[in-house]
Amino acid sequence: xxxxxxxxxxxxxxxxxxxxxxxxxxxxxxxxxxxxxxxxxxxxxxxxxxxxxxxxxxxxxxxxxxxxxxxxxxxxxxxxxxxxxxxxxxxxxxxxxxxxxxxxxxxxxxxxxxxxxxxxxxxxxxxxxxxxxxxxxxxxxxxxxxxxxxxxxxxxxxxxxxxxxxxxxxxxxxxxxxxxxxxxxxxxxxxxxxxxxxxxxxxxxxxxxxxxxxxxxxxxxxxxxxxxxxxxxxxxxxxxxxxxxxxxxxxxxxxxxxxxxxxxxxxxxxxxxxxxxxxxxxxxxxxxxxxxxxxxxxxxxxxxxxxxxxxxxxxxxxx
Length: 319
Description:
- By secondary structure, this protein is of the alpha/beta class.
- The protein folds into two domains: 7-213 and 307-318, Alpha-Beta Complex (Spore Coat Polysaccharide Biosynthesis Protein SpsA, Chain A); 235-304.
- Helices cover 50% and strands 16% of the residues.
- The protein has an eight-stranded mixed sheet, with helices on both faces.
- Helix 2 (57-67) links the parallel strand 2 (45-50) and strand 3.
């Protein structure tokens, strides 16, 4: 292994004009220190991925790239979502680097953890996961739902790293492995463990966002969570089958009870119970159709094989 690997730090950005001027110098400082200690090559870069921002994010990225040679940037043709923007950056970095670290732009992930990730990489690990040791910056509701979500994914059979988001190091070999996955419906924190190379974790404390507002409200987080479940496991469909069998058995027992009651002249007009059963079974049927429809929708998107991202500009193209 090269004792001075070429490291790229990939940072997806969407409408980050407020926080980017604050965090970009911190990433540069960390990169410069790593170069100074001889851990990484002087050709290492910080690559920002503009995910179709509507503010001045791309202008800031291009200005940074013109002022400092360590900064690079790519811009997607339209907003594709954080997962696709991150993949675009990783695949771009794959062409140039020996190892790549993905991180958020908001400064919530401890930037000093990058040095520890590089140390683990130099020790022979292809994948290094950044794991939250504490979530003090998050609300109680968010901590409980996040931890519960990871447990649900594990129960459904997904190979997931507890309390890990998208802060990780990947060797170029691991990036090559990730490139073999062609899913349109991306959930990278579930795909990366499937690569299978030697991995480890480093823990860090998650901080508050340095500036601006987060781009993952509750509705978006729920959509990402459901995408993660349906992308990694078919157990929800199995659960529906079992639930259907249980309620079919209950319906059979109810039918037998109704026939026996009629035969012994014990039949009582029970419109309330009928309405309750109709509502219950109607709701279950709609839920089952919705879950199955979600899987069919994913099949539809995968079969069309649309491009997962289109890069419209690169800062180095303008030099």
